[in-house]
Amino acid sequence: MTLSTVPYALVVDDDPLIMMDTTGILEDAGFRFYEAMDGDEAKRVLATNWESIVLLFSDVDMPGDTNGFALARHVAERWPTIEIVIASGHVLPKAGEMPEKATFISKPFNKQMVHQHLRNMLPDNKLPEPLKRAV
Fold first, then answer.
1. CA angle 30–72–4, rounded 5-degree value
2. Closest CA to 84 of 22, 4, 11
3. Rounded to whole angstroms, how far apart are CA atoms 86 and 89?
4. What is a single Pfam family found in this protein's UniProt entry (predicted)?
């Protein structure tokens, strides 16, 4: 896979340590990434980079006007080709709160959990090579 074909993920979390951990997990999975500290910043990143992003990985509780559930709905409506993972250690989604195609993962998570989740949810054409090769 050449650098130009390595997929991008957008990671959204207001906790710098969780952001660092999550981007490391996704980098190990074969993604390049953009970062945003809240949903409003994520919308700005998406507005200019949506064509290269195949995955949104977002926390739920963040400052600003857009929480993770609202961000997921925004992405699903405007860019339906972007896959969506929402994560939280405090909030579980209620019926109808997330778009149908979005998936939820509980915090704390680890590399193996996230990688397995991504292998199960991502279509083959969006799966980075390292995840395709992993057992």
1. 30
2. 11
3. 11
4. Response_reg
CA dihedral 26, 32, 38, 43 (to 10 degrees): -130
Dihedral Cα 89, 95, 97, 102, nearest 10 deg: 80
**Sheet of strand 83-88: strand arrangement:** 32-36, 8-12, 53-59, 83-88, 103-106
**pLDDT of 3:** 53
Q: What is 3-126's CATH superfamily?
A: Response regulator (3.40.50.2300)
Q: Do 53 and 8 meet the contact criterion of CB atoms below 8 Å apart?
A: yes
pLDDT tens across 7-17, in order?
A: 999 999 999 99
Percent of the chain exceeding pLDDT 90 equals 76
